[in-house]
Amino acid sequence: MKNFKGAAAAVAALALALAVLPFSAAKAQDFPNRPVTMVVPFSAGGPTDTVARLVAESMSRTLGQQVVVENVGGAGGTRGAGQVAKAAPDGYTVLLHHIGQATAATLYRKLPYNVLTDFEEVGLVTDVPMTMIAKPDLAPKDAAELIAFVKQNRDGVIYGNAGVGSASHLCGMLFMSALGAQMTTVPYQGTGPAMNDLVGGQIDLMCDQTTNTTGQIKAGKVKAYAVTTKQRVKSLPDLPTFQEVGLPGFEVAVWHGMYAPKGTPPEVVTKLNDALKTALQDPKVIARFADLGTEPVALDRATPEVHKQFLQAEVAKWKPVIEQAGVFAD
Amino acid sequence: MEIFDNLALGFSVAVTFQNIFYCFIGVLLGTLIGVLPGLGPVPTIAMLLPITFGLPPVSALIMLSGIYYGAQYGGSTTAILINLPGESSSVVTAIDGYQMARRGRAGAALATAALGSFFAGSVATFLLAVFAPPLADLALKFGPPEYFALMVLGLVASVALASGSVIKALAMVVLGILLGLSGQDVYTGTPRFTFDMLELADGIEFVALAMGVFGIGEIVRNLEDEHTRTVMVQKVKGLLLSREDIKRITGPILRGTFLGSFLGILPGGGAILSSFAAYSIEKKISRHPEEFGKGAIEAVAAPESANNAGAQTSFIPMLTLGIPSNPVMALMIGALIIQGIVPGPNVVNEQPNLFWGIIASMWIGNLMLVVLNLPLIGMWVRLLTVPYHILFPLIVGFCCIGVYSVNNNAIDVFAMALFGVVGYVLVKLDCEPAPLLLGFIIGPMLEEYLRRAMLISRGDPLVFVTRPISATMLALAAIALIVVLLPSVRRKREEAFKE
């Protein structure tokens, strides 16, 4: 029953906050004195939403105010991000976005906000590794054979992804660019239907987050070749990295970061960042992240400064890959 | 018998005070949000996810599932009473259910919906328990060509939804397809009809369109004529079903259950199609097809059974394969992950408590729903006696909240208002909105599956006829089309509508 009381208290707090809203001129030192909204620019239930809810729950305990997750899906995450970019810079609206924050800068040519100048970075949260998986009866036995197979068959290989701008789309583009070979790309609306067609053998290959693939790999419903990160993944210790099998520099992970609107007072950003860091050390968060096949980033990467540099580097990394593929989202 | 051991395990999990309590909370909330126009299970479950943090996984999933199938029960209520389908599955129920209500048979329509849903829910849960793994394998055999054929069949059948002019119905289907194609192209990312607005990048929201053309349009039309309402209220009679009614709904409920159970396991459009398909089949084989569109009780029984059966069987791919077949199932997977359970094909073996506990709770939940809903029918019908000047602003208010809650997008509220006007114009032109909605749902899927099938087959159109499932469905579609177009049949059809 404790939980219902907690929820009731949250509702009461929200109502109270709304009632006193016009009078509570935001003073940075007493931040937060009302609930904080964490915008997730994707629909509820997806991997990013799950990461956000775990972090929000822990941050609520640290900040002493509820951190409420609001799903503002649509347009590959740019609608929610745009909403936060234009929100009041008082720290009560924050964004939890994934790698799409960096790729949107190139994928969308008419973006109504600037990825690099319209936000205060709060910190990096986690990197979710990706895995290259295939239908169970695809011929290659290991990752090295797969690379040779794709180079030889080129557009005879059918690669499924979850739509323009999705993580699986990015991984596929990077893979093709690294191999210098084009596969036939078949987009789906989300990972679910693509996974269905992969397990059913309608398509050959897909690269997706461990969140979505670990269960299928362990059950032997798909064939796994390699992970896309620099190091091997703890939950899938037998899978080599692409770097090990001859693709030097190949690295892609679905990283997640937190942002506040530009102009948010530095003290407020610091408070948010402290709460984020506490969440990243929370044993409950660490345990759940492990189930997702990931772990919180090291604390020295979870700072606003490091995240800012990292975001700039990511924007620069994906720009040529996307432009070379010539696929844009608008 | 392994199945009995498993079910015994399931009931031992589900029949504890705590789990019965959460099951009850779930179905009660589900009924409530189903009745409130526009508020659907997706935002409700999303809001409740944080509460499930502290619950054991089985209780959490039992409650969330209850919300989902409870909403299917409740969703038919507003569709029947005020022509307001809050979800795609109750669009078809609105056609004849609302006509029944206008003829004073709201109680019978609601009772039919509740009984049909209960029967379908129980049978589908049984199928889920016994045949989940083989059914899931069947779903995997459906590739893009099969889906394309299924959509073609659905589109041909949609013409049967119209009770008036076939030409107008076709025009409505095409208009629906055009509206449905707005938004970003899945294959190239090219935006269509978005006027450079990010809010429109994902196309027009179905809930906004459905509530606009059905609900708001109907309200505007009612404002014209204060008298219709009084007539309607005076004629309210017989809340429950007569023996004749029960005889007429038995067949449709059985067929609807079968169809819904099968289509529900298909990811994507399966569950949506089931209620449309059930309606079309009943109309084709009915001895009084002329009543369809004017309040035929079969036309409430079949689609309601189909959509509830589909709601239960859509758990099959989620529980046995770890693949979500619709947004609600995606949320369930999110809830599992938060609970520390990695969704995938191993859940059945590694978490038998969870799998069988949920299945057992569905039986209990369906029983609770029918006990909850039948006595409420009298109260819902009384709702019709609330004066217009109180009822209408309330409905419009709930619609706005509901449609906003889908995506937290204000554009959707404006879209609903606009489609309200469109709905009114359509009523005035004698054009029916149901084919428009079907075109809206099927059109984009038809395009998506066609292009996907062609990409995978490298442009070889023969793929549609060399694969047996796809070839069979296309043949059925061709036969249906010929039947509709044969002059003699058409004449008979027109005569039937003149009556």
TrEMBL record, chain A:
The UniProt keywords, alphabetically, are: Signal
Q: Which organism is it from?
A: Ancylobacter moscoviensis
Superkingdom to which the source organism belongs:
Bacteria
Protein family according to the UniProt entry: Belongs to the UPF0065 (bug) family.
What's a Pfam family this protein contains?
Answer: TctC
Q: Which PANTHER family match?
A: BLR1237 PROTEIN (PTHR42928:SF5), TRICARBOXYLATE-BINDING PROTEIN (PTHR42928)
Question: This protein is called what?
Answer: Tripartite tricarboxylate transporter substrate binding protein BugD
Recorded hits in InterPro entries, A to Z, give:
BUG (IPR005064), Bug_dom1 (IPR042100)
Cleavable signal peptide: 1-28
According to the UniProt entry, the coiled-coil residues are none
Automatic annotation (TrEMBL), chain B:
- Give the organism the record lists: Ancylobacter moscoviensis
Q: Membrane-spanning residues where? A: 7-33, 45-69, 108-132, 147-179, 258-279, 328-348, 354-374, 386-404, 470-489
The family database entries (PANTHER family) matched by this protein are listed as:
TRICARBOXYLIC TRANSPORT PROTEIN
Q: Which Pfam families match?
A: TctA
Keyword annotations: Membrane, Transmembrane, Transmembrane helix
Q: Kindly provide the name given to this protein in its UniProt entry.
A: Tripartite tricarboxylate transporter permease
Domain DUF112, first and last residues per copy: 20-438
